[in-house]
Amino acid sequence: MMQESNSPNRFGVRRRLDQFGIGIAGLCVLHCIAAVVLVSGLGLGGHFLLSPEIHRIGLALALIIAAVAIGWGALKHRRAAPFVLAMMGLTFMGGALAMPHGEKEFLLTIIGVSLVSVGHLLNLRLKPAV
Questions:
Q1: Alpha carbon 82 to its chain's center
Q2: What's the pLDDT at 113?
Q3: Is the C or the N end of the chain the one with fewer CB within 10 Å?
């Protein structure tokens, strides 16, 4: 039986996916802050920044990237913590979609994005199991 190698290239792809996931989480936070500042403070950009499609697309991207990167990592390092944190975060993000725009949506989104980011960070730091 042939074992799958832990080639640097395969590890590099997972690493890049985790980094991309963290980057998307950062963009999500910036989007949330911009929405609060621009829409609430200045009354600008509400049609774009508060669009439900942006939130659905963001959650779909986060879900796909987390499933691949963190799922792949869980198979390699055999630790559940990154997966559990990311899934909790995605659940909070999904819950935010069900809320009307406002403080509760903002809070659920920030909590969710933070948990997904921590899941990606842990996934990056854990070494493959032997």
A1: 11
A2: 92
A3: N
Alpha-carbon distance 110 to 37, whole Å?
15
The pair of three-digit structure tokens given for residue 8, joined into one six-digit string: 């640097």
CA angle 75, 76, 77 (to 5 degrees): 105
**Residue from 85, 65, 52 nearest 24 by CA:** 65
Give CA 102 to chain center in angstroms. 21
Q: Contact, 33 vs 23, CB < 8 A? A: no
Residue pLDDT tens, the chain, 130 long: 334 445 555 568 888 989 988 988 888 888 777 776 776 666 655 666 667 788 888 889 999 999 999 998 888 889 999 999 999 999 999 999 898 878 898 899 999 999 999 999 999 888 877 7
Locus of tokens 């819950």: 95
Neighbours of 64 (CB within 10 A): 12
Our CA angle for 19, 20, 21, nearest 5°, is: 90
SS3 content of the chain, % helix, strand, coil (to 5): 80, 0, 20
For residue 1, the model assigns a pLDDT of 39
